[in-house]
Amino acid sequence: MKKAATFDDFFKLASFFYRTIGIEPYDEPGVEVKKSKSFAENFIFYSGVINLNYVLIMEIVYVAVAFIRGENILEAIMCLSYIGFVIVGESKMFFVFRKKPILSKFVKRLVEIFPQEFELQKTYNLSSYLRQSSRVTIGFALLYMILIWTYNLYAMTQYLLYEKWLGSRVVGQQLPYYTYAWWDWHDHWTYYLLYFIHAFAGYTSATGQIASDIMLCGFATQIIMHFHYISHVLTNYKVKVDEAKDKQAGRSQDITFLKDIIEYHNCLLDLSEQLASVFSLPLLLNFSASSFVICFVGFQMTIGVEPDTLVKLFLFLFSSTAQVYLICHYSQMLMDAN
């Protein structure tokens, strides 16, 4: 006997990524709300946010110093791309954290209309929507994990492989991202500390974006599923007043059916508005920052860089474009279903 899918099946991956950065995006319906987060959750969250803001400030200082002195302009332009990436990730983390009460109410209402029984789920064609959502979320998460760990590990791998292990060429100690430092960390133990700080910040920003985007896709997929179900029910409904011997009884059944459908549709419209109220501003910032990131990355690819750097830039450009496309695609699907 096949097992019915659960509401949480749409959000397993998003919940996993949120847990790794210490965020609980919403209170689970039917689960007792914790009065306070655990020490581990608080430590992971606040250490990640503080570290991310430190790296962001040092990147901004690096760009300012570079343009003031007229030095390292190409590196400063690259750093502007990193700044945009951090801003997108942090804004999405901030708004989900701040809008948790609204998001919790939204999820509670979405759970209430979620089809629980297996036979009802077949009517909704829920398994198809779940498969589609899983493919998209896994693919997008994998793409961003490849992106961030390519950037996080490239400098260290190059240093250890070519200089320390093979001894084929001198690479020198480099950090994943360009930040301002008021001391010389080369050939010093603080190099490894700074490297961890950079990698941790990169992971935090990327995870904030991944979790927010795939959670949004999961919400949108479920609302779209409900809209399509309404369309299916209306298309296949047989008017009772034309078939019933008792016209009054048939008319009463038709009116009851229409009333239920209208209430159902209004509920979905309300849920769509709540979803927009939580994600509209961070998505606006996402589009703005991603546009700058795409421009900066595209510019860097045209001025001539080394092949390995070109591969990294292409991966960055492709990931940013995929993110914008993903959001636009689901937004359009939701509008069409509505």
TrEMBL record:
GO biological process, one term: signal transduction
Chief place of localization: membrane
Stretches assigned to coiled coil: none
Molecular functions (GO terms): odorant binding; olfactory receptor activity
Alphabetical keyword list: Cell membrane, Membrane, Olfaction, Receptor, Sensory transduction, Transducer, Transmembrane, Transmembrane helix
Membrane topology listed for this record: Multi-pass membrane protein
Source organism, top-level taxon: Eukaryota
A Pfam family reported for this protein in Swiss-Prot or TrEMBL: 7tm_6
Oligomeric form and interacting partners: Interacts with Orco. Complexes exist early in the endomembrane system in olfactory sensory neurons (OSNs), coupling these complexes to the conserved ciliary trafficking pathway.
Name of the featured protein: Uncharacterized protein
